[in-house]
Specification:
Chains A, B: It comes from Spectribacter acetivorans. Chains A, B: Keywords: FAD, Flavoprotein, Oxidoreductase. The structure is a homodimer. Chain A is an alpha+beta fold and about 500 residues long. Helices cover about 40% and strands about 20% of the residues of chain A. Chain A contains 18 helices and 20 strands. The first copy, chain A, has a 7-stranded antiparallel beta sheet, with helices on both faces. In chain A, a hairpin with a 4-residue loop joins strand 5 and strand 6. In chain A, helix 8 runs antiparallel to helix 13 and helix 13 runs antiparallel to helix 14. The longest helix of chain A is centred in the N-terminal third of the chain and has 19 residues. Chain A is globular, with a radius of gyration of 23 Å. Chains A and B meet through strand 9, helix 7, helix 8, helix 10 and helix 16 of A and strand 9, helix 7, helix 8, helix 10 and helix 16 of B.
Chain lengths: ~500, ~500
């Protein structure tokens, strides 16, 4: 075994030397202490030191790195800001971690054609900050928008509070430049509305680093709305709040955002940021409308009428931008606020057809009792994207495992009502088992064929997003061991 | 040769018998007189009788047909309503034409979740007609919406007048059921906003029958706007009209539709439908805004101010729905109206970044003089999607060839300003050569790899949409023969 270890060390040394012929020495990290900051992304329950980290700053360098790794058969994991929540940027101990952190320049803002050309490491919020000078902004706004990068947003097809009206990342892209596994540079999409050929732009978006390395992104910009106001509506019953969501959408209004928080979330948040939320409510809705002054006034009246008819116990409308920011402050602080009520939390991400909101929430509460783990719900109600936050204490033996099992059941609930196992966080390593439930063999085979069309030797981010046949066999065995499908929970509802 | 002919006849007879074991005899057409109606789609300059036409009416039958053809190595061309304008449904003399005409049922309208589940042969307009009972409609509205089918819309990623605000077909889809070349049934996409795994939904959309046979489509429905009005603005200069388009968009307004017609188009149309267009204008814009009453009123004022500032010589606003329909009647009749000024016309379809509108129009006029073929322009100005209608007489020797050469030059103009060779009509057989100019070898290789991932033996609609290496070599040779890139036309502007 000592021989094998020294073989590995030789292999690594050779690779470091080869990479140093492409990049300056300080851009090739290989000592354990230098590698540590890259051992996980936002899903910190999973950690792994990479063999080597590279920090290129030109497209030519990325192409050369990919050519080298392809020839040497070394797997590569691309990484943006590392804020992802499904472990999509988890390194491999035998692989190169390719950080795009130095690709942080805004290359061009074209106000006439309402678009911005960006390096992939540009922070999401920095786009809107730069576009503001032209009265424009970039719509998708993940909670992590201060830190997360546009390249990572593309890789995960990120959403945000405003994607109900303005769509996910995929709906706000025009063009990508992508380096393939063997170092070719592809231009995908076009500044025009549509491009001929197969739609590789959408295919690449959300592909979690499995198909290529994104080295340039052109996004659509939108005109900043003239006005925006938020309605805060409280309910003494979660189910009623869920029905109000359906009623708002059913009234023909498309709010800019329509968020819901349940009682445990409200109380944790209020204690933390003092947003003025009614702490005795079972649920609140935050409904933002934007547009011209007149349009906003009309929609505020319409939404107010709907939530009152649906039994809201308290309805407030933001009077100015300061109050609007205050109303949102609680929602935005919801994740960190969980620290007030539990040492750890696990943020789930599943999506369901809107009309099943009340039913699935009931199921989540029933499972909470069954597993003995608390839960708080904060979510994009308008598009049915749930974020149950399961509360646990990692220091208590067995709690993380119980939390993961509970989380898995929540995903299965989503599937059973025709939903999906992810809304905007991606599959990564976290939900790869549940991909076996969402897709049948023919569908997974098709995914593998697509993967092979881009990366025949499986060197790009292997082990993520799309499970192998073996993986699904193992998951099935584990699953049958843990409990049987379909769930009794749903049948009781 | 007689032997070979009889071999072919035997092969056909055997295939007919095999297909008759799957379908009732009247659903397998094989006599020349029965095949004739299928010899072309909307691009009638290209015609070819298929070997056999099949008319299945269940998904099981489509699966069985695909299994049979796959095993026998027989190519298959799927066809919707046959209204396509790029020859995407042109049959093969050695192939089966699979008509989806009998898949014409609306399976479900789910008003709560604002979606409709449809068989692929459902007509585009029939969706909105059925959804109207719920105050909903389906947004993409190709000119052929009375006749074209939703399956064909998906295959071509069709647009329409309202795609500026509401997007192309791909932006209005939730889920597809697709039969693969070897007869598997895949469910692609999801009723939720996003689905995990690679985005096969967008990949399949616009893939022109090359990747699978669409057998079910779930579309998004939108609430019918409370109000809609149209502004008609006339200009005495095409360039000014183009600048007004940029100014409207630049003012932060996203009209529901923003169309432009030039002088020759205006006069042909007015002579035909008497829409009241100013026949002395060099160009008119039709700008529709929709939304709530107040929003529409605000936007009408804003657009009026912009077009007046940009030098409009005549500005009219529709006073009621009847006048709105009148304003649109001319635009909608533009294609048939061409019959008033020329025996034949060839409708081109290219897209350019909006700000190059004036420049490219000048290039189109210069080429018109060079080739000695008249041209009228009718187009989706808001999203830069041009539809130059080249006028010709097929009975004059050489005119069709000259028209095609002129059309090719227009596509090259689009490419040179960063546009694309198609906006919404697809590539089909028509523009396959120009795909060699739009994409480089690595990009076309990637397309072929995707194709192979779905259809390794190339049996689905071969010869369309993505050119082979040989095809590009031939096109390059032809191209150099006809004239050199880059064009002197653009340099003169």
């Amino acid at each position: 075994m000592a021989v094998a270890q020294s073989d590995i060390a030789d292999h690594k040394s050779q690779l470091v030397r080869d990479l140093q012929s492409i990049l300056p020495a300080e851009s090739v990290l290989h000592r354990t202490e230098d590698l540590a900051p890259f051992e996980c992304d936002g899903l910190s329950a999973y950690r792994q030191l990479p063999m080597i980290v590279v920090l290129p700053d030109t497209i030519d360098q990325v192409q050369a790195i990919m050519r080298l790794c392809s020839t040497a058969g070394v797997p590569v994991v691309a990484r943006g800001a590392g804020t992802g929540l499904s472990g999509g940027a988890l390194p491999l101990d035998n692989g190169v971690l390719l950080s795009l952190a130095r690709f942080n320049r805004i290359l061009d803002i074209d106000a006439d054609n309402r678009c911005a050309r960006l390096q992939p490491g540009v922070r999401n919020l920095a786009i809107s900050e730069a576009a503001a000078a032209y009265g424009l902004y970039y719509a998708p706004d993940p909670s992590s928008q201060i830190a997360c990068s546009i390249g990572g947003n593309v890789a995960e097809n990120s959403g945000g509070v405003h994607c109900l009206k303005y769509g996910l990342t995929v709906h706000n892209l025009l063009e990508l430049k992508v380096v393939t596994v063997d170092g070719n540079l592809l231009t995908i999409g076009n500044r025009a509305l549509d491009a001929p050929g197969y739609d590789l732009l959408a295919l690449m978006t959300g592909s979690e680093g499995m198909l290529g390395v994104i080295v340039e992104v052109t996004v659509k910009l939108l005109p900043s709305p003239e006005s925006a106001r938020v309605i805060l509506a409280a309910f003494d019953d979660v189910e009623r709040a869920g029905e109000a969501v359906a009623a708002i959408i059913g009234a023909g209004i498309i709010p800019a955002g329509l968020e819901m928080m349940d009682g445990p979330a409200i109380r944790a948040v209020e204690d933390f940021v003092h947003a003025g939320y009614p702490t005795d409510a079972a649920a609140i809705l935050l409904c933002e409308v934007d547009g011209t002054e007149a349009e906003v006034a009309e929609h505020i009246d319409a939404v107010t009428a709907v939530v009152e008819r649906e039994g809201a116990t308290d309805v407030r409308v933001s009077r100015d931008d300061a109050e609007r920011a205050l109303f949102w402050s609680g929602r935005k602080a919801a994740f960190p606020a969980m620290g007030r009520i539990a040492p750890d939390y696990y943020c789930m991400d599943g999506t369901i057809p809107r009309r099943h909101l009340a039913r699935v929430l009931k199921g989540i509460y029933a499972l909470s009792e069954e597993y003995g783990q608390g839960v708080a719900n904060v979510f994009h109600a308008g598009d049915g994207n749930l974020h149950p936050l399961i509360l646990y204490d990692a220091n208590n033996p067995g709690e993380l495992e119980r939390t993961e099992a509970y989380g898995g059941k929540i995903l299965e609930l989503c599937l059973e009502v025709g939903g999906t196992i992810t809304g905007e966080h991606g599959v990564g390593v976290e939900k790869i088992g549940h991909m076996c439930l969402q897709f049948n063999d023919a569908e997974r085979d098709q995914f593998h064929a697509i993967k092979a069309a881009f990366d025949p030797h499986g060197l790009l981010n292997p082990g993520k997003a799309v499970p192998t046949l073996n993986r699904c066999a193992e998951f099935g065995a584990m699953h049958v061991h843990n409990g049987e499908l379909p769930h009794p929970e749903l049948e009781r509802l």
